[in-house]
Amino acid sequence: MSEEHRGIWVFAEVIDGAIAGVSLELLGAGRELADKLDVPLAGVLLGENITHLSEQLIPYGADEVYIIDDPVLKDYRTEPFLAGMGKLARMYVPEIILYGATPNGKDIASAIATDLKTGLTADCTMLGVDIENRLLEASRPAFGGNIMATILCKKHRPQMATVRPKVMKALQPDPARKGMVLKEKLEMKEAEIRTKVLEIIKGPGKSVDLEGADVIVCGGKGMGDEQAFQLIHQLADTIGASVGGTRDAVEARWISHDHQVGQTGETVTPKIYFAIGVSGAIQHTVGMKNSELIIAINKDPDAPIFDVATYGIVGDARETVPVMIKAFEELLRENEVISHA
Amino acid sequence: MHIVVCVKQVPDTKVIKINPKTNTLDRRGVPSIINPYDAHAVQEAVHLKRQHGGKVSVLSMGPPQATAVIKKSIEIGADEGYLISDRAFAGADTLATSYALTKALEKISKTSPIDMVFCGKHAIDGDTGQVGPGIAKRLDIPPITNISAITKVTKDYVELQRKLQDGYAHIRSTLPCLITIEKEINEIEYAPFPNMLKAVNYQPVVWSIDHLEDVDRKQLGLKGSPTVVGKMFAPPKQEGGHRLEGTPEEQVVQLVEVLKEKQYLFHFNKG
Amino acid sequence: MPEKFDVIVVGAGPAGTSCAYQCAKNGLKVLQIERGEYPGAKNVMGGVLYKQQLEEIIPEFWKEAPIERPIVEQRMWLLDEESAMTLGFKGRAWANEASYNNFTILRAKFDQWFARKAQELGVTLINETVVEECLVENGKVIGVRTDRPEGEVLADVVVLADGVNSLLAKQLGFHQDIEPAQVALTVMEVLKLPAETINERFNIEDGQGCTIEMFGDSTKGHLGTAFLYTNKESLNIGVGATLSSIVKEKIKPYELLEYVKNHPIVKPLIQGAEEAEYLAHLIPEGGYHAIPKLVGDGVIVAGDAAQLVNGIHREGSNMAMKSGSYAAEAILLAKQKGRFTEEVLAIYREKVYESFIGQDLKKYKDATETLENHPQYLKEYIPMMNRAARAFFTVDGTSKREKQKGIFNMFMERGKIRTVQDMYRAWKVMK
């Protein structure tokens, strides 16, 4: 570690020609850290034909943007991205680098941590800073999400963390903000790279759209058995919602893995989230607590899900859900009548 | 084709309990299991062996009890197992872990060159997914993470389906390479009885630090780990919401009223 | 070609492991197959381990086995809705190592330990595997087929210790379907409580345990019993009733357990305890009449599978272990003779019937049926005894002689002849 490591970087991930939401969120979180440590905040942008995107980063809080614009960076691959990030980090020695905990963000962060022989904390949900010691306090759910742990990297720089999407808040963009753009080159030939991206297939691979859903009905262990879990599907069918499941429900094979909400599944932010028979272990709530309206049904009045729920019903889901289905069916029928009238 | 699968023994996080007073783990009665993603990785390697021939080895780092996950891998169909076990490895974070495993892989490859290294996507006790790419970097082979299908295997390259946030990338990589495995890649098969018999009495090759070559001890275990746990704390409590009262019918009536009032009903679509 | 062992033992409970242990100790190649995730995973019952049978197999086992507490006191409660006639025995001698009688155990821990001891002697234990059928060739059992791919495995002799309602024994035609009256469904919870609290509430010290058997209102008068055992830092509380009464009287077993837990006499003992586990298990109660055919060519049936449980005294694990030992003895003899025929193995049946197992089961052969057919014992006499005791011990100015007379009349209200008949019948089945 040396005194010269200064500044906070955010790896700006590009998805479909635009900056990923999580990267903008990280600029918001990074801004706060940078102000506390009195250092500049930088976005790091790698890709092909992406230089113009620097204009998106500065309004969201970046003071500086480092850019490598090169055809070998067209689609994400570890090798060229590692070469690019590694080169920049060695040249400009930041003290903190933040990445979105996305497949690509986690991939590049892991490779760079090994390359730079430094510490990396995965899947953080809280970031803080010890100003005196200039330490990043990266906190994350640990041990299956039952408890929070703060991880420190005391003697190595840069300090690095991947951060879960939709946990941090992006700033309101300020078009008047000014920033500096620095471009670097990557000396790497396509022929040197051992992996090729043959094709990118959008969407269809994933049959379940939880992230885009406005309403999600999620069932947990409290449903008791696979048969009772069908009530979750019935309710979802009634109101046109997507179905989610907790890790327990997935492990019990009541529902497939791609429906999983939580730390090891999807992070979702629907308008309405029904948590039914879900106890509310933090491993689950990190994935859904930012939903607009949360309705929880659980037998146990002390279940932690009620701490995040907007409305709580203490009761047996097997009794309540059928009543709910009936009520919503009637409601929707009424509305149909009204809209046709 | 020689595939080495890195497997980890983890506490079954489904049954882990936290002592709410001390914020410490209550490990009593918590069973140790093979990391589920690693089990899928072993299964996938066994599938490939069936189709293309070769050998499946598994490698684990941990205390002597970690032999159990190697036995589990033998049940699934692995041919041989290696355990690196030494106090010097204890307390390793992902950086130090990838260093130790890399040293063991180098030793294995001396007698039997490795075509592919498989890792689980992440371990359920750490959820980091950092060790696999770390090993790849150290071995200087390409890492391809989050693999949900292996679509083609030749002696020079593989074609893989890599899971992205909103879709898939179809990737070709030269061999050797390292891939990390998603659960959806396969279903764990019910192990054949002869495998069960073989596993019961199977003893892996156990290496201590002295068995490994060119090891820089400073990069191992606690000493070689840049990260430390600062503190453990209970998850922040959020302000709880409103409790509905009464019979199920009464509660649902209240809920419908609230949804109407707050104009949330238009989010419903008739299914 | 399937692998071949000397012996295959199906099941890793007390009977199976006892047999496997002794076969391996005498140099036989033994394969043990357990359906649960580990031995004891599927087991609740017992909770009480008797010393003698295991000591014959592993001397001074209590020094290393995961026992909870040596039992120094056995209580019996005859409950009505709000009172209890209590009797029992507490002996300091039972707290001494030299004269231990029995212990409370947690089966999940104990069965694993016992199986591990057998593995140390060379037994090959395969978990999470279901034996689907015995392989039979020319009327002789030559191995088993498991539910796994390539699941056949061979042996000279197969020991069926696969628990109550042994499907394997049934497939071989050794018994018919088990009658609902011949089997009890027991549900049990493990309740966590600090050791000091247990010591205080049960008036015992560290290293001392207590068992309470409850009759009468604990099962709302249905045929069955409830029990409460002290472990080191937990209690086992459970209730069992015959399957026939559960069906006939539409009892929900977990409701019955809730009822017991909330019984005014029981509740103070378990107050504040944390529920750690919930388990359910079938226990053979058919006794002597229900014992199936015990041996065939290349096959032996042991433990619960052979219905070797004394329902009246709640003894099962000791009979299971002993039958496992006898099975091992028979197998070793057969090995010596080089013939694993029914004729050679028949020595097992003789030993079972001649030992305390056969004798005790014979003694109580009609007890369960009698209680099943005559519900008045549990439904009427126990409440009556409670009323009698209350009347007798309540000081209200009535003379003791008057009270005795009143109590006598109370019992005779049912009709002299009926009462005398009931008493005679009870004496006859218990004698």
Automatic annotation (TrEMBL), chain A:
<protein>
    <submittedName>
        <fullName>Electron transfer flavoprotein alpha subunit</fullName>
    </submittedName>
</protein>
<feature type="domain" description="Electron transfer flavoprotein alpha/beta-subunit N-terminal">
    <location>
        <begin position="8"/>
        <end position="197"/>
    </location>
</feature>
<feature type="binding site">
    <location>
        <position position="298"/>
    </location>
    <ligand>
        <name>FAD</name>
    </ligand>
</feature>
<dbReference type="InterPro" id="IPR014729">
    <property type="entry name" value="Rossmann-like_a/b/a_fold"/>
</dbReference>
<dbReference type="InterPro" id="IPR001308">
    <property type="entry name" value="ETF_a/FixB"/>
</dbReference>
<dbReference type="GO" id="GO:0033539">
    <property type="term" value="P:fatty acid beta-oxidation using acyl-CoA dehydrogenase"/>
</dbReference>
<comment type="similarity">
    <text>Belongs to the ETF alpha-subunit/FixB family.</text>
</comment>
<dbReference type="InterPro" id="IPR029035">
    <property type="entry name" value="DHS-like_NAD/FAD-binding_dom"/>
</dbReference>
<feature type="binding site">
    <location>
        <begin position="246"/>
        <end position="247"/>
    </location>
    <ligand>
        <name>FAD</name>
    </ligand>
</feature>
<keyword id="KW-0274">FAD</keyword>
<dbReference type="GO" id="GO:0050660">
    <property type="term" value="F:flavin adenine dinucleotide binding"/>
</dbReference>
<dbReference type="Pfam" id="PF00766">
    <property type="entry name" value="ETF_alpha"/>
</dbReference>
<feature type="binding site">
    <location>
        <begin position="277"/>
        <end position="284"/>
    </location>
    <ligand>
        <name>FAD</name>
    </ligand>
</feature>
<dbReference type="GO" id="GO:0009055">
    <property type="term" value="F:electron transfer activity"/>
</dbReference>
<dbReference type="InterPro" id="IPR014730">
    <property type="entry name" value="ETF_a/b_N"/>
</dbReference>
From TrEMBL, chain B:
<dbReference type="InterPro" id="IPR014730">
    <property type="entry name" value="ETF_a/b_N"/>
</dbReference>
<feature type="domain" description="Electron transfer flavoprotein alpha/beta-subunit N-terminal">
    <location>
        <begin position="22"/>
        <end position="215"/>
    </location>
</feature>
<dbReference type="GO" id="GO:0009055">
    <property type="term" value="F:electron transfer activity"/>
</dbReference>
<dbReference type="InterPro" id="IPR014729">
    <property type="entry name" value="Rossmann-like_a/b/a_fold"/>
</dbReference>
<dbReference type="Pfam" id="PF01012">
    <property type="entry name" value="ETF"/>
</dbReference>
<dbReference type="InterPro" id="IPR033948">
    <property type="entry name" value="ETF_beta_N"/>
</dbReference>
<protein>
    <recommendedName>
        <fullName>Electron transfer flavoprotein small subunit</fullName>
    </recommendedName>
</protein>
<dbReference type="InterPro" id="IPR012255">
    <property type="entry name" value="ETF_b"/>
</dbReference>
Automatic annotation (TrEMBL), chain C:
<dbReference type="InterPro" id="IPR059103">
    <property type="entry name" value="FixC-like_C"/>
</dbReference>
<keyword id="KW-0274">FAD</keyword>
<feature type="domain" description="FixC-like C-terminal">
    <location>
        <begin position="368"/>
        <end position="431"/>
    </location>
</feature>
<dbReference type="GO" id="GO:0016491">
    <property type="term" value="F:oxidoreductase activity"/>
</dbReference>
<protein>
    <submittedName>
        <fullName>Electron transfer flavoprotein-quinone oxidoreductase</fullName>
    </submittedName>
</protein>
<dbReference type="Pfam" id="PF26311">
    <property type="entry name" value="ETF-QO_FixC_C"/>
</dbReference>
<dbReference type="InterPro" id="IPR039651">
    <property type="entry name" value="FixC-like"/>
</dbReference>
<keyword id="KW-0560">Oxidoreductase</keyword>
<keyword id="KW-0285">Flavoprotein</keyword>
<comment type="similarity">
    <text>Belongs to the ETF-QO/FixC family.</text>
</comment>
<dbReference type="InterPro" id="IPR036188">
    <property type="entry name" value="FAD/NAD-bd_sf"/>
</dbReference>
<dbReference type="Pfam" id="PF12831">
    <property type="entry name" value="FAD_oxidored"/>
</dbReference>
